[in-house]
Design goal:
Order of helices and strands: HHHHHH
Strand content: under 5%
Number of strands: 0
Distance between the termini: 39 Å
Shape: flat
Radius of gyration: 18 Å
Number of domains: 1
Helix content: over 70%
Number of helices: 6
Length: about 180
């Protein structure tokens, strides 16, 4: 029963987030087709999930500093959720680049030109690839029940994700596509 209530709450939260994000995308990018708005909504949700899950994992990691007897499985699970969010964000970023490839090519500067690739590369490397490596490092630390190291790694990962998210916002403002 408890698991079912948790699942219902999570589903309601996800649905509410999806509807709110879809509304914001529709209002902010009215020139997009319905399919493009759906891709943009999913991309925005994935980016938010990465920032939220990494930040939450870092905060939870700090709880282990004050409550050392806390079961480690919670942080392990949240680290896995973070990895899943990062992979989903990576997939939606690739999908957005495919769906919006023509408008991204025609943007100023073109996304697939030198300056655009610099920003996209920063988004990928700093906002997703390095945090994925850091998540693996945190998982390794957690296998040895070293929550202090994992918390420090998650802190650094949070900073990287926030930089990547800032670049994502810049790209969205520049190209009118959530990347």
């Amino acid at each position: 029963m408890k698991g079912a209530r948790w699942a219902m709450g999570a589903a309601a939260g996800l649905l509410g987030s999806a509807l709110a994000t879809g509304w914001v995308v529709r209002e902010g990018l009215p020139e997009l087709s319905l399919a493009a708005q759906l891709v943009a909504t999913i991309s925005s949700l994935a980016t938010g999930a990465v920032a939220g899950s990494v930040g939450l994992a870092m905060v939870l990691g700090h709880w282990y500093l004050t409550v050392p007897k806390l079961e480690i499985r919670y942080l392990v699970r949240l680290n896995r959720v973070t990895v899943a969010a990062m992979l989903a964000s990576l997939a939606t970023l690739a999908g957005a680049c495919l769906v919006f490839s023509e408008s991204l090519r025609n943007g100023q500067p073109p996304l697939f030109g030198p300056w655009g690739l610099f920003y996209l590369g920063t988004r990928l490397a700093v906002g997703l690839a390095l945090p994925l490596v850091f998540a693996a490092m945190a998982a390794s630390s957690l296998r040895f029940h070293n929550t202090r190291s994992a918390t420090g790694i998650l802190y650094a990962s949070t900073v990287l994700v926030l930089i990547g998210t800032a670049v994502s916002v810049f790209l969205q403002d520049s190209y009118r596509v959530p990347l």
